């Protein structure tokens, strides 16, 4: 009872609430003292500068509860960032994370949050409690005295002088330091503004590309039937594929086709987010600048212009992203989940049904199919059938490192399922008896508590090796190999050369199909004798193209590149 009386007295004390709300505002910055890989001085400034700002702001309110609500945007940032720190281990709320909120459906959010209960409960208790305390503060007749607020304001201003001096010194001595990148919540606020701008630009995409034409040409006669299929996997990492040397037999279908496929051993993605990686796979922007995306259409349009029938089948929900627009360039575009209630899982097997239906009406002409899978996206157990549950136990109680065995088993089952899907599509095209090819890659990989950092999932502010290394596999029919032996030889000749998937898929598809456009760069087409390995880049949160040794990779990631014999940087 005495403790309760003490707590009640503390809660009713406006000065206690003043310091409590200040602590809530600065809490993520205190965590960042230990999580960030920036310099020690930068981390110290990351605490002192925001503390000084919040301290000063709170002195202008007689009731701290009003200050709490006046600064609520920063409370929101703090809560959001603590959850992401728990998930990713570092970094502010990134632009891509804000965009993920707008391009991620309710089901994905529910699946994710239900497995991050520790951080969600912590945030709810701390900041939900803050809301309750702010109401107490507002209803309390007691106010902060003028002398208290005046003294606190003077101390905050006195602290601001050395803090600004440290800020200036850091700028002068640390070339990597940027206020908009390294100081929370400045970086998060800036990222929010960037995300709003990008989202608005995306919504205006159809207007900016309405007059775009590739002026595509081809020398191949219309009378020669050709079929090409691009399969875009979701969250598939090469390290868990048997075809890439994984100890488990997760890819029996592709293993059986070893003499008919080319497996690119050293392939990485340029982004760890779907909404960014897939548009780069479908357009030439990975070899240009990001903003060029707003002014050109995708590879489907190029195939349309030379007389191909095209279809885009997706097992992902429409989300007003570039992917929606690029997919809808096809003569036939189907988003399976359009008519499916939110929260209901749909198997990628539905994509096979659409493929079978489309090929049943194939008339021997020219055809391009693009499949966008949901493959290995968390929650893994919802992504495969009982037939593919070959690795047990796979019941995931929570997204914690202690359950890594179950997480890996379930994840490997998703790979087994995706392998069966890819193998089935290849078999369907082979049965047509025409010149054709199937290209399979993934948007990005995934962290599954792989090392001491305890990282999980993808789309983190800074990538990891496990998020970057993805599969790239090309199959060509016997008829294609006979008709275009030079391209098949080129495909095989480049299998061990370091590859950026986002740079090569667009150009390789066009080159294999004998299609020429002004944007085609044969030095990025794996099927061309002119292909040349180029510096591999990562597109960071601000859409800057950065070399691998300047994109946030850590010592553990570099060790993985070396351990697998992959090129770094």
Description of the structure:
The radius of gyration is 27 Å and the shape is elongated. The chain contains 23 helices and 15 strands. It is 49% helix and 10% strand. With 569 residues, the protein is an alpha/beta fold. The protein folds into two domains: 2-200, no CATH class; 226-526, 3-Layer(aba) Sandwich (Alkaline Phosphatase, subunit A). The model has no long low-confidence stretch (mean pLDDT 93). The strands form five sheets. The protein has a seven-stranded mixed sheet with strand order 3-11-8-2-7-5-6, with helices on both faces. Strands 1-13 form a two-stranded antiparallel ribbon. Strands 4-12 form a two-stranded parallel ribbon.
Mean pLDDT: 93
DSSP strand tally: 15
Count of the separate structural domains: 2
Low-confidence parts = none
- Gyration radius, in Å: 27 Å
Which class of secondary structure composition applies to the elements? alpha/beta
CATH architecture of the largest domain: 3-Layer(aba) Sandwich
Q: Mind describing the biggest β-sheet? A: 7 strands, mixed
Q: End-to-end distance, in Å? A: 63 Å
Major beta sheet, strand line-up: 3-11-8-2-7-5-6
Would you state the CATH class of the largest domain? Alpha Beta
Task: Identify the CATH homologous superfamily of the largest domain.
Answer: Alkaline Phosphatase, subunit A
CATH topology of the largest domain: Alkaline Phosphatase, subunit A
Helix count equals 23
Residues in helix, %: 40-55%
Shape: elongated
Which percent range describes the beta-strand content? 5-15%
